[in-house]
Amino acid sequence: EMAWVRLIFLCLVVLSLILGCVWRSTVSADPLRGSCNLKQTFHDEFDGESLDSSKWTTRFWWGDGYINDGSLNYYTDENVSVSQGAAHIKVEKRAVADKPYASSMISTYGKFTQTYGYWEVKAKIVSGNGLSSFFGFGAFDRSWPPEIDVFEIPQQERKVFMTNHYDADNKSNEGTWESPVALSRDYHTYGLLWRSSLLVFYIDGQERWRTTVGVATKNLVPNMGVGVCGGWCGDVSKVKLPRVMDIDYFRVYSEDCLKSATAVTPTSNRR
User: Fold this and answer.
1) Which of 11, 148, 204, 242 has the fewest CB atoms lying closer than 10 Å?
2) Of 243, 195, 259, whose CA–CA distance to 94 is shortest?
3) Model confidence over 180-226: pLDDT tens digits?
4) pLDDT 10s digits, 16-32
5) Which is it for strands 105-107 and 101-103: parallel, antiparallel or unpaired?
């Protein structure tokens, strides 16, 4: 009987080791220390006193602050600022045009675009009913789809939605990840590794979701900001405003997987 107990125990130990190896193999290491050469192609550390207009715009490609997704806010120039080494996007109850709330977003449209590579933002999101922090991509040629949402974090502080929109009939696939801590309490990194047939989504250097379906193959433009998303993500009237999303840095790398990797030295991480 003791022999059988030892055998069963040994089998359980081996099984746990195998499962542990399988689990670890699905969680990629920090992409900045991966197997491909990376070259930094764009970055902003937000060390100035105002938004760098050579890198950013606060307008969508159609030229104003409206967006046709049911949002209750207008995106303005006035609601983004830069100080103390970070960009700040403020959402507040202030009527602009015919919208009851004002917020902002930043985009590299007309300034910078790239196909593939690794993209990363370090940000402290906002939380609250009716609000949604976002970091996503739209097509440089103004087509839709594609649209890649690296993160949308509506209403609460823990659940992250990662979505790839790839079909004109609104087909998409989506991953979610639940943080053990409230993401609005501190800075976290959010990254996308984009190859011709693969999207890998990272939070704090750990893979949280991947897809190989409908991967975009054209130049995309990043957008970051805060929306007042209305009823689908809660009643914003119950939230005390203003609230501010902080962005410590935004960095982009091109990737060469035909060469062996050398150490990447990103711009210093202040926080």
Assistant:
1) 11
2) 243
3) 999 999 999 999 999 999 999 999 999 999 999 999 999 999 999 99
4) 444 333 333 333 346 66
5) unpaired
Q: Whole-angstrom Cα distance, residue 252 to residue 247?
A: 15
Burial of 52 (0-12, 13-18, 19+ CB in 10 A): middle
Alpha-carbon distance of 102 to 227, in angstroms, equals 9
Q: Across the chain, how many H-helices and E-strands are there?
A: 1, 16
Spatial contact of 55 and 111, defined as CB atoms under 8 Å apart: yes
**Size of the chain, expressed as the number of residues it contains:** 271
Handedness of CA 205, 211, 212, 217 (dihedral sign): negative
Integer Cα distance of 250 and 271 in angstroms = 13
Question: Distance between CA 225 and CA 184 in Å, rounded?
Answer: 14
Cis status, amide bond into 145, omega within 30 of 0: yes
Q: State both tokens at 257.
A: 């997987």
